[in-house]
Hints:
Layout: E1 2-3, E2 10-11, E3 17-21, E4 27-30, E5 38-42, H1 46-54, H2 57-62, H3 68-83
Antiparallel strand pairs: 1-2, 3-4, 3-5
Amino acid sequence: MRKCVGCQEMKSKKEMIRVIRTSEGEFLLDATGRKNGRGAYLCPNGSCLAKAVKNKGLERSFKQAIPKEVYEALEKEMEVLESE
């Protein structure tokens, strides 16, 4: 069970999107859940992403500022998941 950085609800890992920071400081979306790096979890819907942006959930998880490109990539991923 993992906690969403947006809505703060506990859900299984398979239901969530994992965002990781690699040792090089790069942020990636981890669809497999197996990549190395510090991870934070987010529900696959736009409302949780909006809450995470508003309450700086990803910033707190990684203890640093998050590049705008990471949020844009998450938005695109959410659109794909919601259209399925």
